[in-house]
Every structure is written in structure tokens, then in C-alpha cells.
Amino acid sequence: MARAPAGFLDRHHFLLRRLHSLSGIIPIGAFLVNHLLPTSTAFLGPDHFDEHVKWIHDLPWLLALEILFIFAPLAFHAIYGVVIALQGRSNASAYPYMDNWRYTLQRVTAWVTLVFIVGHLMHFRFAHWIGGAAYDYKAAYFAFFNHTQSGFLDLLFPAWVWVAFYAVGTVCAVYHFCNGIVTFCITWGITIGDRSRQYVSVGAAGLGVVLCAWGLLSLYALVQFPPSDNQPVGHGRAERTAQVERGPGGEPAP
User: Fold this and answer.
1) Domain containing 113: what range?
2) CA distance 252 to 233
3) Structural Rg of the chain based on CA atoms
4) Which runs of consecutive H residues, i.e. helices, occur in 141-193?
5) Is the pLDDT of residue 203 over 90?
6) Fewest Cβ atoms closer than 10 Å to its Cβ: which of 20, 75, 103, 108?
7) pLDDT given for residue 23 in this prediction
8) d(Cα 15, Cα 179) in Å, to the nearest integer?
9) pLDDT at 179
10) pLDDT by residue (tens digit) across 158-194?
11) Is 10 part of any domain?
């Protein structure tokens, strides 16, 4: 009896697995680090946050960079990750070894992180879909702290709901990435012995602590710190225009 021809996923299983493993580290993991570092500067004060975010939004071809190095790899990693997760089976309850628990946590945090990323995009980039203000960082330039803070204080749910959502999502995303570093090194033959694997595990755990600290400190600052004195560029321009139209004495100009 002739066997049914293998599907696309089966024919390219090895390549897709390698690309999935690689995309989780570069560029997605690199973006996670680069995303948490500037947001952590909110804890140093709104001016620091505004300055770092301004540098990012001053990059040329920003939208093209986001699509090529963030959204496209994220979409591939998420979609193929769902395929992997649906095929995998956890045996941590039957064989409660550390590796089995890490495998299970990797799958659980993958689902949580997927929900978190979608929620994060809806919270800011596509907030107008759920009753918030339209995403327009050009209008917020150079008052990025106030623009971001308003998303936690003025949108749909109380601030503590957003803080809890972001705290859980950040911890899960960080664990998924840092544990992924360990599995990446095994998959690509970088760690070939128990000792080298232990070193990578300790390093990945240390990185995870730092990334979680960055994320949680930024959440604290965005909710607890007073707004920045910086005003959007457009706001200042509108005020100057209105003043000119009113005339120096406050009366409408002739």
C-alpha cells in the first residue's frame, strides 16, 4: 500500500525547527532585551525614558525595521510554535525531573507569552480598536513617558489590572526566552556536556533576573511616578499658533 506523500511541515521539519530555534534568539530575543532596557529607564525618571525612546523613534526606516526584524519573525515563531506545542506531550507528572518541568514550563509560558504579546499590541499599537486613543507616537513626540503612562491609567481597566497583566506576561516572556537560550545551545551543539550546559543555565538564569527586574521597575515607575513636564512637539506648536492668532493682548488678532 502506497504511503501518503509527506506534507510541507514533515518534509521541512529539520529546517523549520532550526529556524524556529534561531528566530527565538535572534532577532526576537535581542529585541526583548532591547525593549526592556529602554523601558527600564523610566525608573530613572521620565526624562531618561523620553530620551531613550526618542532615540528609537528617530531611527530611519523604523516601520520597515519593525516589520522585517520584529513582526515577521514573531509571526513565524508564534505560528510554528503553536504547531510544536500541539504536537508535544508533557510527561512531568509521570517523570518529575527538572528537564521535564522545564519543558512543561516552556510550553506553558509560550501560550501565556502569545496572549501577552497580542494584549500588549492591542493595549498600545492598536488601542483604538478597544476604545483607546489611536497609536500615534509622532503626536506624542517628545513626551513618550506621559503617552505610555496614560495607557496604564486611562484605558479601559484599572491600573492594577494592567500592572498584573504586564508583570505576569513579562516574567513568562523572560522565562521563555532564557530557557530557550539553554535549549538553543543544546540544539545547535554549543553545549555538548553537562558542565557546559550548567554554565549556560546559570548564565541564562542570571540574565532572566536582570530582565525581570528591568520590566518590573519600569511598571512601578509608569504607575507611581508623576507625569513628565515634557510636552509633545505638536502641543507646543498648537499653543504658539493659538497665541499668534489671539494677538499679544489675548484678543483675536485682526
Assistant:
1) 15-62+71-87+94-235
2) 24
3) 23
4) 144-153, 159-187
5) yes
6) 75
7) 96
8) 21
9) 96
10) 888 999 999 999 999 999 999 999 999 999 999 988 8
11) no
How much is the mean pLDDT over the chain?
A: 82
Place of cell 505576569: 168
* CA 219 from centre of chain: 13
Q: What share of the chain is helix, strand, coil (3-state, %, to 5)?
A: 75, 0, 25
> Can you tell me which residue has the cell 513628565?
228
Judged by average pLDDT, the poorest of 1-10, 76-85, 176-185, 234-243 is 234-243
Distances (CA, A) of 127 to 27, 150, 157, 199, 235: 25, 12, 12, 42, 21
What letters, b where the CB count within 10 A reaches 16 and e where it falls short, cover 156-176? eeebeebbebbeebbbbbbbb
Q: What is the pLDDT of residues 105-119, one digit of tens each?
A: 999 999 999 999 999
Kindly give, in sequence order, each residue whose CB lies less than 8 Å from that of residue 59, ignoring residues fewer than 6 positions away: 65
Tally of domains within the chain: 1
In a domain, 56, yes or no: yes
CA-nearest of 254, 153, 156, 173 to 216 is 173
Other CB atoms within 10 Å distance of the CB of residue 45: 14
Q: Which three cell numbers stand for residue 23?
A: 528566530
Closest-CA residue to 135 (of 117, 155, 115, 116):
155
Q: What is the CATH number of the domain that holds 130?
A: 1.20.1300.10
Residue 150 covered by a domain: yes
